[in-house]
Each structure stands twice: as C-alpha cells, then as structure tokens.
Amino acid sequence: MKVLGIDPGTATTGWAVMEEVNGEFNAIAYGHISTSPDNSTSERLKEVADDIEDIIRKYEPKEASVEDLFFFKNAKTVIKVSQSRGAILLTLEKLKVRIFEYTPLQIKQSITGYGRAEKKQMQLMVKNILKLKKVPAPDDTADALAAAICHLNSRKMNEP
C-alpha cells in the first residue's frame, strides 16, 4: 500500500509517497510545493490543494499521514499552517484517501525513539532509514518522509 506523507505549510509543503516492501521502506517520490508570497492566501491554498491532487492522481496512495499542529510560538504562523492543513485535508477527503494525523512528537518518537529529537537528528535518521545518499531538502520534504515512515511504522504495530 502506498502512503502519502505531508508536512503542511502555505509557503512550502513537503510531500512524500512511500511504501513498505519486504520490511524495507521505499521512497517512491518526494518533493515540496512552494508558493509565491506575491499571491493571495486563497491562490496559495488553491495551488497547494491542486498540487496535492495531482500527486494523489499520479501515485494513487490509499492513506495519508499528515503532520498535525502541536505548538507554535507565532500565532500568525499557526493560522497559515492551519489554513494549508484544511485545504490539504479537504483534498484528501474528496479523493477518498484515508487520513491519519500525527503530532511532531509522535513522528520524532517513531523515527528516532525520542520525541524531542533535534531537526538534524531527524533528517539523518530519515536519510539512513531510506538509504539515501544525502539528507532530503528542504526540511519540509524530510519532514514529509518522516511522517510517511511514522505511519508505516504505526500500521505495522496496529496490524493483527
């Protein structure tokens, strides 16, 4: 089963399509969606939603792992990310992709075994788990891969 990992944002949204094959995690495709600050919020949200829809239609994931909001120091940032998450969740629901949400703490715990791991440690673990030559960039892409890995790990633990 293919899983779509998403790290939501308005300026940059990370995404990753992964599957598990014979106990190994396989990154099928990954990247990020960047929107222009010159565009209106609604234009940026539409661009994110349209691009997520294109990714879903191309790779046909059955489930999505979306990073949940947990804590933000900046109220303006939390509002923007919430708007992006809303557009993404609506797109997933419309296309009948089953949604799973994980906090950054849960994702870090799944990847590193420690819920307060530093970003660099997370990125290195993603690189090592997926046997990549270098750390995926930007950070949002690595975070999307981590969200997908978290979900694949959770699926394994919850299977009968």
Overall description:
It contains 5 helices and 5 strands, in the order βββαβαβααα. It is an alpha/beta fold and 160 residues long. The chain has a single domain, classed as Ribonuclease H-like superfamily/Ribonuclease H (Nucleotidyltransferase, domain 5, 2-Layer Sandwich). The protein has a 5-stranded mixed sheet. Helix 1 (41-59) packs parallel to helix 2 (75-94), helix 3 packs across helix 5 (139-158) and helix 4 (119-129) packs across helix 5. The longest helix is centred in the middle third of the chain and has 20 residues, at 75-94. It is globular.
Main sheet strand line-up: 3-2-1-4-5
CA radius of gyration is: 15 Å
Query: Strand fraction band?
Result: 15-25%
Largest sheet: 5 strands, mixed
Order of helices and strands: EEEHEHEHHH
What is the count of helical runs?
A: 5
What is the straight-line distance between the termini?
A: 16 Å
Shape: globular
Number of strands: 5
CATH topology: Nucleotidyltransferase, domain 5
The multimeric state of the shown protein is single chain
Which class in CATH terms?
A: Alpha Beta
Class derived from helix and strand content: alpha/beta
* Total number of domains: 1
- Low-pLDDT sequence parts: none
* Helix proportion range: 40-55%
Mean pLDDT: 93
